[in-house]
Design goal:
about 60% helix, mainly alpha
Length: about 90
């Protein structure tokens, strides 16, 4: 019959039981693994923090206008003086 459920042959269980790599480790090896993993996570967080600070600093520098040159400052001063006289 067409409506009978069919087995999915690709979903068969493997013949060898699955064992994680942690199962073959001793208790001290597991502790060491956890320490190294935690240390790596802390370093990733620190790198991310510094990256965010650098991006924020770059954004702030992009928003700040450069200080006018000496010639521009003299021109502004002259324009203000002329406005006061006129």
């Amino acid at each position: 019959m067409c409506s009978t459920p069919k087995t999915n042959l690709s979903a068969k269980m493997p013949k060898t039981p699955f064992r994680s790599f942690m199962a073959s480790m001793t208790l001290t090896q597991r502790k060491r693994f956890a320490e190294v993993a935690n240390w790596a996570e802390e370093r990733r967080e620190i790198r991310e923090h510094y990256r965010q600070r650098a991006e924020k600093k770059a954004q702030n520098l992009g928003q700040i206008q450069a200080a006018p040159s000496l010639f521009q400052r003299i021109k502004i001063f002259c324009d203000q003086t002329i406005k006061l006289m006129g």
